[in-house]
Amino acid sequence: MSVVPVIDISALHDGDDEAKAAVAAELDLACREIGFFQIKNHGVPAEVIEAMYRTSDEFFSLPDADKRRVAQPSPDTVRGYSSVGEQAFSYSEDVQQPRDLHEKFDVGPVDFDAADPYFSKEHAGPHFLPNQWPQTPETMEQAWTTYFRVMNELSRKLMSAFALGLGLDPDFFAGTIDKDISMLRAINYPHMTTPPQPGQMRAGAHTDYGSLTIVRQEEAPGGLEVFTKDGDWIPVPVVPDALVVNIGDLMAQWTNDQWTSTRHRVRTPRPDAAGDTRRMSLVFFHQPNYDAMIECLPTCVADGDQPRYAPISSGDHLTSKFAKTIVLSS
Length: 330
Hints:
Layout: E1 6-8, H1 11-14, H2 17-33, E2 36-40, H3 46-60, H4 64-68, E3 80-82, E4 103-107, H5 121-124, H6 140-165, E5 183-189, E6 203-206, E7 212-216, E8 224-227, E9 233-235, E10 243-247, H7 249-254, E11 264-266, E12 279-286, E13 293-294, E14 312-313, H8 314-325
Parallel strand pairs: 1-2
Antiparallel strand pairs: 2-10, 3-4, 4-5, 5-12, 6-11, 7-10, 7-12, 8-9, 8-11, 13-14
Helix pairs in contact: 2-6, 3-6
């Protein structure tokens, strides 16, 4: 594929088995060919997206000192605020480029029983640590919590469709994502007043780490690009009311690379870009349970072949990747 397909997933909400299977086949093709697709009729209410955007915009508009009060405390505790230049996505691939030109705010799971030892730091490590919420805006925690829940429900529908597309029972993944360690992030790409350094990106080229990622992007200069199997960088256009979805490394490993975890980046605005070049993206990183073992699916290895990857737990894989990208010292 030389374009990112747009797929109507309305059947996943209330369609019959035949309609769901047809959507699953479209998703399977997109994941094999390019690893990216856009979804329409996804069921996410417009007001939920608007509240997420509004509160994120208010937060990023605060003075730096206020944002720093909820700064990310350490590389393996991905909670709170990181400023421009404190992350480099290319580092996750051991590629050294100038630091990325964005700031971000992260939260982890919002619904779990803190009294259950499974979710404790002793057993779960950093994956269920408390979120940090700023005092301003006051409605940020509510808006983000609602958005997290809606994205998680959508992710579970997509994972069920993925199972169908891979010739598995639709509930195949259910036991691996019922205590997921997903993360929600807002990324602000500030207006650029000076040219970037050579090779510098708003977000350097990388693959995502987990099962799937859902992105709400906006129309603004310097956008998302995908690296195709033909060796070309192609833009991902903004489709009104659609969400961008891509699969991550763990889904590629689950499928023995039958599905593609595709490199992507957010480029800087072109030199002739006029007006305000600020843009913001809302990103939900869906990640299986920390103790879910990711190993080759039974439908993804032919007789006589061997899996390409050794089994790895979802939690260990995520921690190792995130720690590489964070640069907390300036």
